Amino acid sequence: MRRPSIAARLSLIVSLYTSAILLAVLGVDYLRSLATLEAEIDRGARLQTEATANALEIPLSAAVRTARALAAALNHGHFDDAGARELLRQGIADNRDVLGGALLFAPSPTGTPRPRDHDCRWRGTEVECLDGREVERGPTDTPLPHPAPVDGLSWSPPYFDDDLGQARMVTLSAAFDGGRVSLDLNLDRLTREVAALRLLDSGHAALLDAGGTFITHPLAGLALRRDIHAVPEALGLDHHPERAAELLSGHPGVIDGVDVSGDPIRLYHAPVAPPGWTLVVVLPAEEIDDDVRALALTTSAIGLLGLALMLVAITLSARAITRPLRRLVAATREVAAGRLDTPLPVHPRADEIGDLTVGFATMTRSLRDHIERLTASTAAQARIASELHIAHDIQLSILPRRLAPHPAFELHALVEPAREVGGDFYDCFALDAEHHCLVIADVAGKGVPAALFMAVAKTLVKATSTPGRGPAEVLERVNAELARDNPRCMFVTLFCAILDHRSGELIHSNAGHNPPLLLRAEGSVEPLPSQRQLVLGVMEGAHYRDARARLAPGDRLLLYTDGVTEAMDAEAGLYGEARLREALRALGPGSPRSLVEGLLDEVHAFAGDTPQADDITLMALAYRGAGVPGGD
């Protein structure tokens, strides 16, 4: 009996598992969607209510700032009548929501004449002010308004202004020393924003003042005439009138109510902070549930339709899944043989075979790109190696290639960088006919940064070394230049000495460098007495001291860097200063060249195949004495 094909088995297995999983997901989604979407609608209604309340606060807060600014200016400034009137006019002109305002002064308790009152109003595009004698006071126009002030401010109940065509208005008052400033705000823009607020199909909004009076309501007859305590049914609270206090508590929240038809509603309320008003958004609960159920049913229908289409797609795809495999296998064999330009078969479906085809195409492109990048990288590395080789040659050209012979001494030196370029350097140059300057130094670090720092340090040493200037003064001047602009905190250890050809006196100063070794004519080896001082480049203002020694004819002086003593063998053991002294003693009274080359051979023999970790620099001087003929 023939077994079912791979396509049939794949279609059956995938269809069964996919159908079971999708149906389970749809069932759970349907059960949870009601609560989830209701929570989202509830959250959206809360946010919309609070956002609208915040938007309503903007013009009110601007008026508060204007009132406080005017009161503060009147408290702390001294204004005549014209100045006070101009202050009021400018404050009103800066805020288009303020239709007018007044400055009212209290009678003086001593009976002295009080300042004149001022009243300014918008007239078209200009703010016009009445002369103080023309301001008429009503019975309530006292310097401090009858509502209790809060933080120096008080708000009147909203009212209709007959002079402005029944416009909704509110008056904000701010007390100052000897009177008050009052601003009249037009609430029409706020009421339009509240009336335009719409959520769901029949949701609406209302705005209440601090006492519960309706500022705006869909029923126009309630505005500024009735309050929530008298008509709780206007917001569905007739069965729970005690919840009106919760509505006016000044905190955002949600209250359940029942409209006049007996249908449940939800009241989302948020405070409008400056005057203590409350914005209320009313949503029918049935509309919330209808939207949730409709969305859940739509999701289920789409899911079931998707399931049916997916089963058909799985069946068709499974039947075709084996056809392109042979073509893909043949193409991948060509690619494996190195023919990366072999075209892969085009698979029209976005299934596993399509992903596999795309994956092989991506792999082929990546492999080709990698080979191209590797070729370019190899060329770049070769170019860098060439440039570093040139830099190596340039750096070596900075160092003295061949030290000029001198009758009083013989000198030889070499440097072996750990990389193509390094930070060690040496120098020997004449200061005058009787003195030579000897320098050896080691810059912290290796590579190009150390090489650049080395070039700067060497240039500074040679530039600051002049006849009559001791090594310590040279070090102080070089340190001042290096430390002045050194953001990377690089430093250099440096030994500087001045040799008097006639007497053999050696004046020297050591900035943190390895002390040179002195090989006496009789064969003893001892370190040159010196005090190790602060390295160069780390601290401006550092001071250095000179030390003195005297060379006798036949004495030899070895200057070196720590690349010699810190050379390591295969067991990570250090060459060390003791081994260096023994090697120096064993090499005996040879020429400086033989001494330097012999020591370098000793270090290489000790390190073996261990890679060199630091630059190696050696400089040897053999003192003959004044008037002794000789040379290299």
UniProtKB/TrEMBL annotation:
Annotated GO MF terms: phosphatase activity
Q: Which InterPro entries match?
A: Bact_Sigma-Reg, HAMP_dom, PPM-type-like_dom_sf, PPM-type_phosphatase-like_dom
Domain named PPM-type phosphatase is located at: 408-623
Gene Ontology cellular component annotations, sorted alphabetically:
membrane
Question: GO terms for biological process?
Answer: signal transduction
Give the superkingdom in one word.
Bacteria
Any idea which UniProt keywords this protein has?
A: Hydrolase
Location of the HAMP domain: 319-372
Q: Which SMART domains match?
A: HAMP, PP2C_SIG
Q: Which SUPFAM superfamilies match?
A: HAMP domain-like (SSF158472), PP2C-like (SSF81606)
| Record-linked Pfam families | HAMP, SpoIIE
**Protein name per Swiss-Prot or TrEMBL:** Serine phosphatase
Q: Which organism is it from?
A: Marichromatium gracile
